Automatic annotation (TrEMBL):
Keywords: Membrane, Transmembrane, Transmembrane helix. It comes from Thiorhodococcus fuscus. The chain crosses the membrane at residues 400-419. It holds the Pfam family DUF3422. This is DUF3422 family protein.
Amino acid sequence: MPLPFKEHPLRHQAVAELHARNYEPLHAPERVSHLAAICGERGSGRNLRHLFRLLECYGLPIPDQIDQHYSAMLGDIGLLWERHTEFVTYTFTKHGAFIHPFAQPVLRELPEAWLRDMPGEVVTATSLALESRDMPERSQEELDSFFSGNPIIGSEVVGGAGRAWSDMRIHSDGYSRILVRDQGLSNSQAGRLVKRILELNAYRAMALIGLPIAREANVILSQGDRRLVAVAARMTEKEAAGSSAESELLDDLTTLASEIEAVAARTDSRFEASRAYYGVVQQRLEQLRQKRIEGLQTFTEFLEARLAPAVATCTSTSKRQQGLAERAARLTSLLRARVEVGLQEQNRSLLESMNQRAKLQLRLQETVEGLSVIAIGYYGVGLIGYLFKGIEGHGFPIDASYATGLSAPLVVLIAWLGLRRMKARLLEAEKHRG
């Protein structure tokens, strides 16, 4: 039946997002294996193909469409696949009693070839065991043996309805280990608790990926800082003045600014992601509703003591490279301004020199014009003299020398007027062309 109103095109997607990170109810005892693999933001296609390959191994039908999560039963093994922004997670659960919680990870029951060909790079591989409340309490010696004698952290969770222990280390089998004890959890509470702990572990790892990158970037930024100080000192020296020296300084500054921007382009998104993941870790820690177990650090105390400085390092590195880029930009602007002022001075000197040359050329031109008038008048008077001599030779009563002398001023005047008129016409034509 059609709705009597017009729906927003994203209405159903917005509601579906509320259920995109759902949990699966669990009933102790359970063993859980969890993998988080970085695949990038464009790895959906190959990850889905890999998931379908696993379903084919167990003879399951291939779904027509998968959004951000998918669950299925691979025989007696439960599968939950989830797609995050830049990584995917696989959670495998198996119900049944166990003696040693980490002796037989559920992942060992999956096809080795499928695990070997998993796309991306695994950032967390975790074995989690959910013990029943009916099992005897674990002694401290047993807990120490489960975690290879490493310092253990732990706390009561869900307001005392459960307990959780871990050492947050990678053991010889390649897995991190988390032990959870049910002390009154419902199936839904157990599912939510396990999911939050596994997400906490995955987001913790993703947040810490930015720390080695920040350390590498700080080495480059320290070198860039020293180079920037050296360039600034050279700019203040008197011998740094001059077009060649300023061009060299400008080249150095441009190269340095490009290197800083390249570092920022490689790391900014990673640092932003680390801060975002750290926020999720803090949220998941709050949702655990922890209470202290006497003698143990809580998960919050342990992670805050290590995560907070790491994320602070990422944040400070991001601010440092931003500040260094701004300083380099300011110095570049100052140097460009100085170069432009120098060019303006050179242009002004050049224009003054051109003006002086133009004045000199004008004077020379006027001199040449005067000489031209004299030359034209000389030749004109000579021609008129020949004319008068011819007339005198034919018997006309005229004194050729006297007549030639009288005509000389008139010829010179005519030549001068003609040159002036020609010059005016040329200037007028040039004016119209301009």
